[in-house]
Amino acid sequence: MTKSVLLTAVGAILALGGLAAFLVLQGLDAADKWSSVLSLFFTVAGFALALGGFATRGAAQTADHAVTGGSLHQIRNVTGDVVITAGGGTGSAPAATPPAEGQGGGTQSAHGTRTAGDVHQIDGVDGSLRIEPPRPTP
């Protein structure tokens, strides 16, 4: 655990302990009123954070620290068919359109990836997807 995570955890535990002690000292009726008011503020803060998270979620697509011994395919928001051939590139039908933000949702990533084979991250294909096995070499 890093120092900042440890300090955050200790701070959260102390804050919750202080809040619990405060509510115990208030008595049952006053603690009930306080907890209702605090619940309102925590609910509004949580809702605002959730909206902020949805608004800032981009269409990012990364391969982070990828080192591959094969291919790495990240495909998102394709209108049309996608064909991936092992050991080769990707191909899509001529009807393919550029990515549109908001389709497929979320981000794709490959944190610290090291592969000796293919890695496929596929999201938002509006058509058929075919991953073909390697072809024998003559």
Could you please describe the fold and organization of this structure?
There is one protein chain. By secondary structure, the protein is of the alpha/beta class. Helices cover 38% and strands 22% of the residues. The chain is built from two helices and seven strands; from the N terminus they run H-H-E-E-E-E-E-E-E. It has helices at residues 3-26, 28-56, and strands spanning 67-68, 72-79, 82-85, 90-92, 114-115, 119-126, 129-132. Strands 4-3-7 form a three-stranded mixed beta sheet, with no helix packed on it. It has a two-stranded parallel sheet with strand order 1-5. Strand 3 and strand 4 form a beta hairpin. Helix 1 runs antiparallel to helix 2. It is elongated, with a radius of gyration of 25 Å. The model is unreliable at 88-105 (pLDDT under 50).
List descriptors.
single chain; 138 residues; 3-stranded mixed β-sheet; two-stranded parallel sheet; 2 helices
- Mass-distribution shape: elongated
The helix/strand series, from N terminus to C terminus, equals HHEEEEEEE
Low-confidence stretches: 88-105
Q: Which sheet architecture does the biggest sheet show?
A: 3 strands, mixed
Helix/strand class = alpha/beta
Residue share in β-strands: 15-25%
Strand order of the largest sheet: 4-3-7
- Helical fraction: 25-40%
